[in-house]
Write a structure and sequence with these properties.
Elements: H1 5-15, E1 26-31, E2 37-42, H2 49-62, E3 71-73, H3 77-87
Parallel strand pairs: 1-3
Antiparallel strand pairs: 1-2
């Protein structure tokens, strides 16, 4: 497996927006198995097959009740970054 360091770093910069406001065209998601971390991602990711698989897994585990007020994805942070770095 090749390491795509520049793409991963770019994806981390896009994903780790610390602002509480979410710009138009983006959505906040909470990622993690135990401790949840907030990421802001482009809405266009929601139509990608690999990202939709993560959403299906989230629906199975959490349903539609999201106690944190946003979309919750129950996967490891590094897996999430891997998936989203391929979408950038």
């Amino acid at each position: 497996m090749a390491i795509r360091l520049p793409r991963i770093l770019q994806a981390k910069q896009i994903l780790r927006q610390s602002s509480k406001d979410v710009s138009k065209g983006y959505v906040a998601v909470y990622v993690g198995e135990s401790e949840k971390k907030r990421f802001v991602i482009p809405i266009s990711y929601l139509n990608q097959p690999t990202f939709r698989e993560l959403l299906s897994q989230a629906e199975e585990e959490f349903g539609f009740d999201h106690p944190m007020g946003g979309l919750t994805i129950p996967c490891r942070e590094d897996k999430f970054i891997d998936v989203t770095s391929c979408l950038s």
